[in-house]
Write a structure and sequence with these properties.
Length: 161
C-alpha cells in the first residue's frame, strides 16, 4: 500500500524568542505551509521577567515592557526583512504574559492549525526547566492542535524516490 501525505496547512503559529533555533523553526514552518497560508511570528514578553526587573529596582514595569515591546517589534521586522523571498505571507505579534500560556491562548483565540517551535537540547537546560518543564513541553501538553518541535541540530531531509 502506498500512502502520500499532502499537507494543506494554511495558518501556522511560530513562537520566536530570537534564538537561532527559533529562527530554524521559522524556516522549517515556511517549508511546510501552503503558499496560500499565513505564518504568524509570536514573541512573548515574559511577565515574570518584567516583574523581577521592577522588584530589583532596575526599572519601572511599564517602561520596561514598552522598551521590550519596541525591541521585539524591531527584531521581528528584521526577521521578516531577511525573508522577503519566502513564498508565504507573514505577520507578527507581541504579547505579554507567561510564554507557554500565551502561545496556547493565541493559538486557540486565532484558530491556528499548527504550532512550530524550536526546542533546546537537554544539555542546555537550566534548573528551572528541569524542575518545571520547558515552554515547549508545556505547549505540547496543553495544545489542542498539532505541534512540531524543531531540534537545535541541523535538519536533514530524506526525499522519497
Amino acid at each position: 500500500m502506498s500512502w502520500e501525505v499532502r499537507m494543506k496547512i494554511k495558518d501556522i503559529l511560530v513562537p520566536v524568542d530570537f534564538s537561532p533555533n527559533s529562527l530554524r523553526a521559522l524556516d522549517f514552518a515556511i517549508s511546510l505551509i501552503d503558499p496560500q497560508g499565513e505564518l504568524y511570528l509570536l514573541h512573548v514578553i515574559d511577565a515574570d521577567f518584567v516583574a523581577r526587573v521592577s522588584e530589583e529596582g532596575l526599572g519601572d514595569a511599564e517602561a520596561t515592557t514598552a522598551r521590550l515591546r519596541e525591541q521585539a517589534e524591531r527584531r521581528l521586522q528584521e526577521i521578516l526583512d531577511e525573508r522577503t523571498d519566502a513564498p508565504v505571507q507573514m505577520s507578527t505579534m507581541v504579547v505579554v504574559g507567561k510564554p507557554f500560556a500565551e502561545i496556547l491562548r493565541v493559538a486557540a483565540d486565532l484558530d491556528f492549525q499548527m504550532i512550530v517551535l524550536g526546542i533546546r537540547g537537554r544539555r542546555q537546560r537550566d534548573i528551572e526547566e528541569l524542575l518545571f518543564g520547558s515552554t515547549a513541553e508545556k505547549v505540547l501538553r496543553g495544545a489542542r492542535i498539532p505541534v512540531i518541535c524543531v531540534p537545535d541540530v541541523p535538519l536533514h531531509w530524506v526525499e522519497s524516490g
